[in-house]
Amino acid sequence: MKKLMELLREEMVKAFAGAGYDEKYAQVNVSNRPDLCQYQCNGALAAAKAYHKAPMVIAEEVVPALLEGPYFEKAEAVRPGFINLTLRNEFLADYVNEMAETEKFGAVQTEEPRTIMIDYGGPNVAKPLHVGHLRSAVIGESVKRICRFVGHKVIGDVHLGDWGLQMGLIITELRKRQPDLPYFDPEFAGEYPEEAPFTIGELEEIYPYANAFSKEHPEYLAEAHQATYELQNGNRGYLALWQHIINVSVTDLKRNYRNLNVEFDLWKKESDAQKYIPDLVKYLKDEGYAYISEGALVVDVKEETDTKEIPPCMILKSDGATLYKTTDLATIVEREKLFDPDTYIYVVDKRQGLYFEQIFRCSKKCKLVPEETEMIFLGFGTMNGKDGKPFKTRDGGVMRLENLIAEIKGAVYDKIMENRQMDESEADEVARKVGVAALKYGDLSNQASKDYIFDTERFTSFDGNTGPYILYTIVRIKSILQKYREMGGDESAKVHAEVNPSELALLLQLGRFSEMVQTAYEEKAPHKVCQYVYELANAFNGFYHETRILNEEDTQKRAGYIALLKVVLGVLETCCDLLGIETPDRM
Ligand code: ARG
User: Fold this and answer.
1) Is the pTM for the entire model greater than 0.85?
2) Last residue of a domain, which of 213, 229, 259?
3) Which pLDDT belongs to residue 396?
């Protein structure tokens, strides 16, 4: 199914060509003066220069052909040379009816499916999941769904951070607390216990403690470095402990992500890439890409067109140690081998922008990926508190994601219970869905690269550009449809063409769905989905307040409304799905 805009453009192309003008001037846009017209074409203004004619003359030559076609009710040339367009209601209703019958409501599907590897989430094992990781998970999940929706093969990888000093710190602290564990006995040759010697609660307490302690005690830090080194070089007991840490942590992470409706296809870890490092280093040296600079092994990645300094990409430190970068390059080697992606998308804090620029350049220059591979850095801004500073708990600590969800869910729960009757367990489940929607929508409705202010009160409001408002609209439609069903009304009708103004606005907004999906995909921009779904919810509520739907006595007319409601509901739910937001039946 073609985009509405494409149909209009085709018609415009015919009209321009028919009047003897180049089709490149036949551009159609949504009107920025909806009070005057629905769509407009400004091409006559541009054509005027090329053809040395008055724009108004050109516009007037183009208009008659438009009026002859099936799409336009009105096509007017207005000074100084705009063409204002109003669609025929029949055409619009037909278009929406076709959407209703087409898979994915007619959203354009890609003709060249790509394999897209999306790296998001990026939590670190044993460190509590905090709000810094929230954005990556929420944005990445939506981008993944959008890419998949237009027909690409998308692989989402959590890329667990499991290979750093945090492991050495935990091992060191455990040895201090429980020195008799077999993991610390170099003589021990038997099987290690299957059960971890700690719970997730203990693990989460151990890391911050050890981290703080190491800052005050250099000898303890040195021990942690040594433990990290030994772990990375195959100490059997440490490897067994590390496996416990991962298992306990991953179980907890999965639970947290499930609460957020975030789901990864792959649970790969930084450690999985380590085995590719020796060959990678050898390759970079042999091919002459890497050289020694002040003892370290580096690859130059600056380019002539650079306006700012891009430092060389360091592969090995002067003591031979690998870095976060080495792991990322090795991960690319592994991804090429296992998945051969056409596109990479990294959803990471925008402060890592320069870092990824180096990684991308190094990958291309050293031919770790083919020249045509698309490498996208989707950097996001900071989530701030109301004071405009990075979000903290009341006592100034880092807010754990779980607590944040609990806070927002609590606020929603109170609202639900204020003026409704619902039993507690249902209210609890609804509050979870609506709370998570408030949180996610509050994040996704901002352009990802911008910082935003987290505001429980505003995010949980049932009015305005919020998740709960969208869900409330969905629930409202579901309830009307439910009542209609109970009345036994006709369900086979189509959307009608005799529409009132608010109904027309709703049809127009529906007609833009495919257009929006394409833009959201091209720009990897969930906020475009939010903007659209908000406008659609507004259009629906405008219609709802002006129209007697179930009380309409003309049963045919009523059935037409119901057909319209079904499309609106479907599109709203689809948008929520693209955002990774679950929708309740009641709230
Ligand atoms: N674990 C990292 C952090 O917490 C994020 C990982 C981002 N992805 C990557 N491939 N480096 O900052």
Assistant:
1) yes
2) 259
3) 66
